[in-house]
Amino acid sequence: MKSSILVVTESLPPVYGGADIAAYRYFKFLQSKGATTKILGNYNNNLIQETNVHSVRSIKIPKRLKRFGSYYILFTILFVQVFIFLLTRPGVRIIHAFNSSTLIVQVSVLAARLLGRKVILECCLKGSDDPVTMLGVRGSRLNVLASGKIVKRKLYTMAHAYIAKSPYVRGLFVNTEVSNKFIYEVPYAVDTTNYCVPGREEKIILRNTLGLPLDKYIISFAGGISPRKGVDVLTRSFLELMTERQDIFLVLVGPTAKYDQAFVSAIKNDMNQIGKSNGLMPGQVSDTYNWMKASDVYVLPSYREGFPISVIESLCCGLLTIGSDIPEIQNAQIVHKKNGLIFKQGLADDLIQKIREALELIESKHTWTKESSAEAIEKYRIESIESDYQKIYTAMLLRK
């Protein structure tokens, strides 16, 4: 493709966040293939200096303006920067934006449309950037005006095409005012060079390196330590299971700083009860794949998702994967007793039973996770996803 692609995301480098990680991973893959691709972010926390990595700067808003007017101030500041960025780069013909609820994406939509560029929005999280949420306008007139909801709604409708990350998210476009536009379904990609089934010796080395026991079954979770992720359901379930067996070990991988600190404190209290001999909470890490490959079971007990990358990463690692029965996971990613296990969201008793089943399957030397891993690697490898994206780009450029 001769035209350059601009990937737009919020944070650079993406230390956490499914959409940001997916955007950066995709950008790096395209670069490795020699494609003319750039990435634009709102935050560049480590001031990384990489070819074709760009960032725009915002400002801190005084407290007196945060409740009214801050959206428009920040929007204007970012818009001027993005507009100039695109104006001076006429070769950029397609803007591929990840996480349409963020300000940097909203600004990019307007700048791109004014300059005659094509815009593709990715929609990944129910209750955040899905069409029902983005097109809904609730609240008092003052709140709607101050928060910029009307502007956000209008900008969302200005995209040329939308990419849903799962069948469930795609279904949310039905009966919305953008349902007549081009709606595609493309899942997230997995870095299958890192997220893959480890050999026995590699698993032992990883456990020794990470300080994990060799004689216990490792049950892991990776994600933000937040109520939405249902982490408390997992810790409660694990505490109950410990009364039955001591050969299990819980690992909670993920950031805590940006979430409800009362909830985080409760989780830390649970981990203290579990004890260092049966649990570990390493916090945010850059090598989640190593923690997964060192594990036996992966659990994602979420109440709300879009298309959680951690589930498909776990499948690629060959873990016995357990997810809640929300439509974003059930059947979209995990088919019960085919490539994983499903439990009823929020019900610790049911999760306990599914973990029991998972351990029984492991002890019986089951083989179906090896088959599901091979299927996941083929389906979610970045080469397959990039092929789908290229077809969308070509279709967009051919349309007037």
Q: Could you tell me the mean pLDDT?
A: 90
Specify the structural class: alpha/beta
Major sheet characteristics: 7 strands, parallel
What is the terminal separation in angstroms? Answer: 17 Å
Report the radius of gyration as a whole number of Å. Answer: 22 Å
User: What is the percentage of strand-forming residues?
Assistant: 15-25%
Report the principal-axis shape.
globular
Number of helices, where a helix is a run of at least 4 consecutive DSSP H or I residues? 16
What portion of residues is helical? 40-55%
- Low confidence ranges: none
In total, how many beta strands? Answer: 15
Widest sheet: strand order? 5-3-1-6-7-8-9
Summarize this, please?
The protein has helices spanning 18-32, 63-66, 70-87, 103-114, 131-135, 141-147, 149-157, 167-171, 200-210, 231-241, 261-274, 288-293, 309-316, 348-363, 368-380, 382-398; strands at residues 4-8, 11-12, 37-41, 43-44, 53-55, 92-97, 118-123, 161-164, 182-185, 217-222, 248-253, 279-283, 297-300, 320-324, 341-343. With 400 residues, it is α/β, with parallel strands linked by helices.
Element layout with pairings:
Layout: E1 4-8, E2 11-12, H1 18-32, E3 37-41, E4 43-44, E5 53-55, H2 63-66, H3 70-87, E6 92-97, H4 103-114, E7 118-123, H5 131-135, H6 141-147, H7 149-157, E8 161-164, H8 167-171, E9 182-185, H9 200-210, E10 217-222, H10 231-241, E11 248-253, H11 261-274, E12 279-283, H12 288-293, E13 297-300, H13 309-316, E14 320-324, E15 341-343, H14 348-363, H15 368-380, H16 382-398
Parallel strand pairs: 1-3, 1-6, 2-4, 3-5, 6-7, 7-8, 8-9, 10-11, 10-13, 11-12, 13-14, 14-15
